[in-house]
Fold this sequence. Notes:
Low-confidence stretches: none
CATH topology: Four Helix Bundle (Hemerythrin (Met), subunit A)
Radius of gyration: 21 Å
Amino acid sequence: MMTKSIPNMFTLGNLFLGMVGIILATEGRTSMAAIMIIVAMLLDGLDGRVARALNAQSELGKELDSLSDVISFGVAPALIMYTVAFTDINTALAWTVTAIFPMCGAMRLARFNVRPGIPGYFIGLPIPAAGGVLATLALFHEEITAPYMIFAVLLLSYLMVSAVKYPNFKKIGIPKTAIKFTPLVIIGAVMVAVFFPEQTSKLIFVPLVLYAGYGLKQNFRRLSRKKRRKKDDHNSDEAYSSSDR
């Protein structure tokens, strides 16, 4: 019975860190708040792998994971961004943009739970990646002005509910014998993050942006292919009409 609860402990740890991130954001400790989201991402990446390794997957775990993700990667990153970048802009605009992000994240998670995906891919940007980008992007608030931050929030929100395919690395499992070392990995990651919060967050920002950008590039490629197909079909129709004359 204890074995079945281990993956849920990782998930609850993810939720706990999301709440700590929210509290830190309200206290103005943005770098540490972003670190909480990054470590929560680590726990979120481990809970499913541990569940598969222990054969402890359950509907309870699936629902708990989604509820935790809404807080840790939806509400918390949006609040972090709000506290550092949106407090001086129009209140209605700031509240609306801040609320849109977790709303799209919730839609993304609900769709994931009820629709079968494509093997090896996520449909839409996963909320942990979107939340990680937003939380770490907030650290650049002194270099990036509010309009660009608003655009980034809306773009990430769109990518979560889009039909863009993203590679699914969660299916990469871990050996059962390696599970006992996961607490050491987490402790090590936390220690590095706590001692070097801003540097760690900004370093993590790069691969997360590349992952989000990959889907954006795929979307543009898909749209250009569709446009080219329409053009080819139109040219074919014109050629067929000309041959009938």
